[in-house]
Amino acid sequence: MLDAIDIEILNILQENAKITNAELARRIQMAPSGTLERVRKLEAKGIITGSSIRLNPQRLGLTLATFILVKTNEPVGSSAIGHALAAIPEILEVHWTAGEYNYLVKARVRDTEAQVALMKKLGAIPGVQDSRTTLVLETIKETQALCLSDVPAKSSRKHPTTGGEHARTS
């Protein structure tokens, strides 16, 4: 179980994964060595699985975002076509879903011509029966950051220097 400090660390790292350990320690009011130990424990538990750089797709000319529902004829419980979809570079996300369609796919491409080429790639996958594409006109919010407000935290004690809440080290 996480404590309040772990959750604070995760929120800060989601905001800026390139933050230095010294700055992270300053922000959570802990020693850098203790902060680094906590980050390493979060990695060891598989809670932090890596970090990455976010690119601006518009600045790279990838101005068209689409969501595609894909219907397949694969047997119940199989996700082989999902793995084939995930291998296509333009596809950013593949979600196995319940309902009439088997997968919800998010893709980003240059333009409608590139979208047509992507649809041909989807159609070439054996077992793909149908698809429905929705073009994104404007992205209001796009994030990978998780909302951690509902993650249960261990009981905490008062922070020694601020008097505020500060969780125990695990």
Describe the 3D structure.
This protein is α+β, with helices and mostly antiparallel strands and 170 residues long. The protein has 2 domains: 72 residues, Winged helix-like DNA-binding domain superfamily/Winged helix DNA-binding domain (Arc Repressor Mutant, subunit A), CATH 1.10.10; 72 residues, Alpha-Beta Plaits, CATH 3.30.70. The chain is built from 5 helices and 6 strands, in the order αααβαββαβββ. The strands form 2 sheets. Strands 2-3-1-4 form a 4-stranded antiparallel β-sheet, covered by helices on one side. A two-stranded antiparallel ribbon has the order 5-6. A hairpin with a 6-residue loop joins strand 2 and strand 3. Helix 2 crosses helix 3. The radius of gyration is 21 Å and the shape is elongated. It starts with a helix and ends with a strand. The C terminus is likely disordered.
* N-to-C order of helices and strands: HHHEHEEHEEE
Weakly predicted, low-confidence segments: 157-163, 165-170
What is the count of distinct domains? Answer: 2
CATH architecture call of the largest domain: Orthogonal Bundle
Task: For the largest sheet, list the strands in their spatial order.
Answer: 2-3-1-4
Largest sheet descriptor: 4 strands, antiparallel
The best one-word shape is elongated
> Structural class, judged by helices and strands?
alpha+beta
* Secondary structure tally: strands: 6
Relative helix content: 25-40%
Question: What is the CATH fold-level name of the largest domain?
Answer: Arc Repressor Mutant, subunit A
Estimated share of beta-strand residues: 15-25%
Oligomer: single chain
CATH class of the largest domain: Mainly Alpha
Count of discrete alpha- or pi-helical segments spanning 4 or more residues: 5
Quote the distance from N terminus to C terminus: 9 Å
Radius of gyration: 21 Å
**Annotated CATH homologous superfamily of the largest domain:** Winged helix-like DNA-binding domain superfamily/Winged helix DNA-binding domain
What value does the average pLDDT take? 91
